[in-house]
Amino acid sequence: QVEVVESGGGLVQPGESLRLSCVASGSIFRPNIMGWYRQAPGKERDLVADIGDDGSARYSESAKDRFIISRDKNNNISLQMNSLTPEDSGVYYCNYAMIGRPIDYWGQGTQVTVSS
Fold it and tell me: What is the 3-state secondary structure (H, E, C) of 46-58?
């Protein structure tokens, strides 16, 4: 069993920055990948960025020039979000997934609201 816990959401104005953090603990196996997903009201949950335990990262088209995902050896990941727009609003979920096996875990989500 793996527990995934997010923190760092909040209300910011357009153009501001916000940093999200996530930690996975429990039965952690390698290789694995951890990532951030966003779900806006009435929409599907979409990938924002993810990072493997080898440090390889990938981003959605809207995130790649503004967001930075990072990871440490203790399975803590962060998402630095810059130049935020209202379109970035939603509930952000952290995910831990084992590579090669159909097993993944989700956090409870953290709300990000970008509004003036």
Answer: EEEEEEECCCCEE
